[in-house]
Design brief:
alpha+beta, Maf protein, 5 strands
Amino acid sequence: MLGVDTVVVLDGERIGKPADAREAERMLGRLAGRTHEVVSGLCLRTRAWEEVHAETTRVTFRPLTPHDLAAYVAVGEWEGRAGAYAIQGRGASLVEWVDGDYLNVVGLPASALVRLLATRFAGAYGFG
């Protein structure tokens, strides 16, 4: 069984999922022109063992105008998204720079998962 959950962190504060469009716009406004962290916890569990890991990716947003914020929020892509954006969609237009695993920001820390699989299953699936 594989479980993953992701949170956005700005200045040490967790930024969860917005409750409504107004909160989404406020969250995005806080992230505008700044760097934040996207932290995903990953748990891979079998009947015999359990591995838990965390992956952190730093994301920098470009400066955003009130029009940018309103236009992105109007699309509705913010719904159910930590930090109120989806980098794999139109949210990519908000981003200036990504330092780390892009797929972690999407919601699956792929590099951490591959490292874990390579360790646990050396020689299988082309690992090791």
